[in-house]
Automatic annotation (TrEMBL):
This is DNA polymerase iota. The lineage of its organism: Eukaryota, Metazoa, Chordata, Craniata, Vertebrata. The keyword Repeat does not apply. The gene is POLI. It catalyses: DNA(n) + a 2'-deoxyribonucleoside 5'-triphosphate = DNA(n+1) + diphosphate. Its cofactor is Mn(2+); Mg(2+). Belongs to the DNA polymerase type-Y family. Residues 6-18 have a biased composition (Acidic residues). Signal peptide: none annotated. Keywords: DNA damage, DNA repair, DNA replication, DNA synthesis, DNA-binding, DNA-directed DNA polymerase, Magnesium, Manganese, Metal-binding, Mutator protein, Nucleotidyltransferase, Nucleus, Schiff base, Transferase, Ubl conjugation. The chain holds residues 2 to 483 of 745 of the full protein.
Length: 482
DNA sequence: TGGGGTTAT
DNA sequence: ATAACCC
């Protein structure tokens, strides 16, 4: 109210028809009056009522590291700095630094094409993701210090919901400080900033926090990256890529239509992938505008109501999906691709390698996997993407061995994996595989369950195995095929 | 095309 | 168990 912002200056604001849902998430810990405040009828609400009305407008930052693997490699070996550098997996250059990009190297180029374009290109092997993964989690943890709600996307992107942090800072602004508020980094579309508009003020504070985050990433981890600040994840992600390397951009609500219309094709919209793009093209939908104006009814019949409604909202820049804290990983997997694997022995050797690495990782994590999965890809000239998998519970006596640090946990697990393998592959017939992957998932914290407590009986590894040894053997034999 | 990840059905 | 999505 201090700012005397007029209700009518909300032209072009898109946000959150879903005020009720947003309230449900924002409600915890808010002032007691928040639920009783009059709910604004219009989407987004009256600007000066928004904070008390339960945060229907959010401030989200998307943080995107510059050519992440290449940066990690240059930190590992500073002699690589200043040289065109590519990170290689098999015969692909999966990413490269900006020196290499200037010389024409692109992401996911084959090594042959890249070397042809750029003979001086230095290549390092990046098939072992360990150091990338470790640095990736350091970044997420650093961001979590700003605000605990951090969602990872791959190894090099994070979303942070800054709504609460921004509101705290805004309320602490002294009267003179508001007029001195400035944007950090770029304003998308060079839009005019109105300090009388509370949404502008909040996004500017978001840009300030984004700058602090990037500064901390550089000072503490030596990493550079981009950031985008906007009112939802979709827009934050789109705007973070506008100025590219090591810069940041804030999107003010009035320019969101310009941003999404700047996309040349629906396939550039995050959330619309390969398959959906193909189906949309079959309907004659190519541009964002095509999708905006296409019949909702027909779209729902073609794609299903869920996908249809979600992507059509995306086409208007609307995205009410929350920033979901990622927390520790849900699964650990290791894979290896190759030209050909056609014997069981060969497969077993590869599987043993994959499993050995996984056990190291899972051991460091501390939690215990309760499910194991084997994934294969069969050779086929066309249908390349398709994978098959088999999974089964990990017998509890094996989980126990993980817990006690018993040395031979490999043998029983390899036995299980080979049973899964033979369940998928008829080893009496010729076969040709091009990928093997092992995944440990269904991770559970080791509860300090004591005998006689509820936890004890609800912990499968304790309540099924320790009472009868025979039963645990039976579990192994029958459940492995699952 | 690599070596990972997630959620929905 | 698969299929879609993300990097």
């Amino acid at each position: 109210e201090k700012l005397g912002v007029e209700p009518e200056e909300e032209a072009g604001r898109d946000e959150e028809e879903d005020a009720a849902k947003a309230m449900d998430r924002a409600e915890a810990g808010e002032a007691g009056c928040s639920r009783d405040a009059p709910v604004p009828e219009e989407p987004g609400g009256v600007p000066w009522l928004v904070p008390e009305g339960g945060s229907s407008s959010r401030v989200i930052v998307h943080v995107d590291l510059d050519c992440f693997y290449a940066q990690v490699e240059m930190i590992s070996n500073p002699e690589l700095k200043g040289k065109p550098l590519g990170v290689q997996q098999k015969y692909l250059v999966v990413t490269c630094n900006y020196e290499a990009r200037k010389l024409g190297v692109k992401k996911l180029m084959t090594v042959r094409d890249a070397k042809e374009k750029c003979p001086q290109l230095v290549l390092v092997n990046g098939e072992d993701l360990t150091r990338y993964r470790e640095m990736s989690y350091k970044v997420t943890e650093l961001l979590e210090e700003f605000s605990p709600v951090v969602e990872r996307l791959g190894f090099d992107e994070n979303f942070v919901d800054l709504t609460e942090m921004v509101e705290k800072r805004r309320q602490q602004l002294q009267s003179g400080e508001l007029s001195a508020l400035t944007v950090w980094g770029h304003v998308y579309n060079d839009q005019y900033v109105n300090l009388h508009d509370i949404l502008h003020v909040r996004l500017l504070i978001g840009s300030q926090i984004a700058a602090e985050m990037r500064e901390a990433m550089y000072n503490q981890l030596g990493l550079t990256g981009c950031a985008g600040v906007a009112s939802n994840k979709l827009l934050a992600k789109l705007v973070s890529g506008v100025f590219k390397p090591n810069q940041q951009t804030v999107l003010l609500p009035e320019s969101s239509q310009v941003l999404i219309q700047s996309l040349n094709h629906v396939k550039e919209m995050p959330g619309i992938g390969y398959k959906t793009t193909k189906r949309l093209e079959a309907l004659g939908i190519r541009s964002v505008h095509d999708l905006q104006t296409f019949s909702s009814k027909i779209l729902e019949k073609e794609l299903g109501i869920s996908v249809a409604q979600r992507i059509q909202k995306l086409s208007f820049g609307e995205d009410n999906s929350p920033v979901t804290p990622s927390g520790p990983p849900q699964s650990f997997s290791e894979e290896d691709s190759f030209k050909k694997c056609s014997s069981e022995v060969e497969a077993k050797n590869k599987i043993e390698e994959l499993l050995a690495s996984l056990l190291n990782r899972v051991c460091q994590d501390g939690r215990k996997p309760h499910t194991i999965r084997l994934i294969i890809r069969r050779y086929s000239p066309e249908n390349h993407c398709s994978r098959e998998s088999r999974q089964c519970p990990i017998p509890s006596h094996v989980i126990q061995k993980l817990r006690t640090g018993n040395y031979d946990v490999m043998t029983p697990m390899v036995d299980i994996l080979m049973k899964l393998f033979r369940n998928m592959v008829n080893v009496k017939m010729p076969f040709h595989l091009t990928l093997l992957s092992v995944c440990l998932c269904n991770l559970k914290a080791l509860t300090t369950a004591k005998k006689g407590t509820i936890d004890y009986y609800l912990t499968p590894s304790l309540s099924t195995t320790s009472h009868s040894g025979k039963r645990s053997f039976k579990m192994k034999d029958t459940h492995v095929e699952d």
